[in-house]
Amino acid sequence: MKDIRGMVIDHTQAMADEMAGLIKSQVKSGTTPPPNAPSTISRKGHEKTLVDTGETSDSILAKVIISPATDEIVGEIGLPPGKVTEKWLYNEYGVPYSDSLDPVPGQRIPTRAAWRKTFDKNVEAVTAKHSAALLDDIVKNFRRVKITDRRLR
């Protein structure tokens, strides 16, 4: 039998995994607007937005963080530090003309908020689903406490 803390950790991880999976699916679909510029399509050889090598979407991580100070349990979705994260941020928030990574001078990368929009669209349903599953696990794994009327003297 698991304790409640263990169940909370398991369900928090499951929730983070599901959200990360939804974000990966959105990115891999290649349908996040706006469409790629003709120069980008020519360079990549296809029209799918946010899809190039797959390195970015494959790098999305989901984990549980437990605060040593407060014992708070938090699910986290993120990317490892480095070029992959930098590239993702350029796409998620866009970049002005002068900071563009695109090899065509004078171009900018438009905002393609796949991460934020997917998270915002799904967070309530995913949270409700996993909260209900956690409650079900608690009910299944713990015996009912017999309450008696014992008066203290």
Question: What would your notes on this structure say?
Answer:
The structure is a single chain. By secondary structure, this protein is mainly alpha-helical. 50% of the residues lie in helices and 8% in strands. It contains 5 helices and 2 strands, in the order H-H-H-E-E-H-H. The chain has a two-stranded antiparallel ribbon with strand order 1-2. It is elongated. The protein starts with a helix and ends in a 12-residue tail after the last helix.
List the defining traits of the structure above.
153 residues; mainly alpha; two-stranded antiparallel ribbon
Which helices and strands, and how do they pair?
Layout: H1 4-29, H2 38-44, H3 55-58, E1 61-66, E2 73-78, H4 83-93, H5 114-141
Antiparallel strand pairs: 1-2
Helix pairs in contact: 1-5
Please report the number of helical segments.
5
Sheet/helix structural class: mainly alpha
- The count of strands amounts to 2
Helix content: 40-55%
What's the pLDDT, averaged over the residues?
A: 86
Q: Stretches where pLDDT falls below 50 for ≥5 residues?
A: none
Largest sheet: 2 strands, antiparallel
Strand content: 5-15%
Strand order in the sheet with the most strands: 1-2
SSE order in H/E notation? Answer: HHHEEHH
Q: For the terminal residues, how far apart are their CA atoms?
A: 35 Å
Radius of gyration: 22 Å
Could you write a compact summary of the structure shown?
This protein has 153 residues and is mostly helical. It has five helices and two strands.
